[in-house]
Specification:
CATH class: Alpha Beta
Number of helices: 11
Shape: globular
CATH superfamily: P-loop containing nucleotide triphosphate hydrolases
CATH architecture: 3-Layer(aba) Sandwich
Number of domains: 1
Strand content: 15-25%
CATH topology: Rossmann fold
Helix content: 40-55%
Number of strands: 8
Strand order of the largest sheet: 3-4-2-5-1-6-7-8
Radius of gyration: 17 Å
Bound molecules: adenosine-5'-diphosphate, magnesium ion
């Protein structure tokens, strides 16, 4: 059975989408059949793998609210072993419409059930909020990967996120694990080093050994609709995400 990993942090701009795209692409390149689910109405993950978010015929919104089978919304990325369920602004409506739905937190999990056996890994790119959409992501997941930006306020909001994870585990999804905490946008500054030290002190071996450097190539690749390994394999960002994929595979 495949492993479902939600990538979450209610803060925006901390590297969730960059990690979702690039970790998924690295897993696919390593021969793992991989699905990327875009759970953010901004559609950044969708765009970042070269799918036009304004031209989606059947997207995640339709899966959540129009009774469409998840398999029908799956699109090919053109990259081997790598498929996606795209999203766009339509998902904003889902947030509102789901409120009246029975078992509203379970909708994504229930709709994705048939896909779990098809893939080795399913990555869910969560929106920057602790909204009903994010709850759906956490309920659908086996584990959550938390990204933290290496900056002064890295740990701010983390306790709220961890409380939400505990709540989900208690009430909605007993099996939910923490896959790991990923430090992103590392720079060779004293501040970055201090942040890494603090985070490792607080969270211990929950923190991935792999740290993602600040690397301009990582921020350029999405505008070409490509994961970084297909844009510039040699760059530090590509090498870091390959190392992360190896670490996730080896940790199981
Ligand atoms: P989130 O999904 O958490 O909002 P993103 O992954 O979209 O965060 O990242 C926010 C911005 O920072 C984007 O413009 C992205 O290209 C850039 N970015 C993310 N990670 C890196 C990195 N390691 N190095 C350089 N830029 C990065
Ligand atoms: Mg994002």
């Amino acid at each position: 059975m495949g492993r479902v990993i939600a990538i979450a942090n209610q803060k925006g701009g901390v590297g969730k989408t960059t990690t979702a795209i690039n970790l998924a692409a690295c897993m696919a390149a390593a021969g793992r059949k991989t699905l990327l689910v875009d759970l953010d109405p901004q559609g950044n993950a969708t765009q970042g793998i070269g799918i036009d978010k304004n031209a989606i015929e059947t997207g995640l919104y339709d899966v959540l609210l129009n009774g469409v089978e998840a398999a029908e919304a799956v699109v090919d990325t053109g990259m081997e072993n790598f498929q996606a369920i795209p999203s766009n602004r339509d998902l904003v409506g889902a947030e509102v419409e789901l409120v009246d739905v029975d078992r509203r937190e379970f909708r994504l999990r229930e709709r994705m059930r048939l896909l779990i056996d098809v893939y080795d890994y399913i990555f869910i790119d969560c929106p920057p909020s602790l909204s009903l959409l994010t709850l759906n992501g956490l309920v659908a997941a086996d584990a959550v990967l938390i990204t933290l930006q290496c900056e002064y306020y890295a740990l701010e909001g983390l306790s709220e996120l961890l409380q939400t994870i505990i709540l989900v585990r208690d009430k909605l999804n007993r099996g939910l694990q923490i896959q790991g905490v990923l430090l992103t946008m590392y720079q060779h500054t004293n501040l970055s080093k201090q942040v890494i030290e603090d985070v490792r002190t607080h969270l211990g071996d929950k923190v991935f050994r792999t740290v993602i450097p600040r690397n301009v190539t990582l921020s350029e690749a999405p505008s070409f609709g490509k994961p970084v390994i297909y844009y510039d394999l040699k760059c530090a960002g590509a090498q870091a995400y390959l190392a992360l994929a190896r670490e996730v595979i080896s940790r199981g």
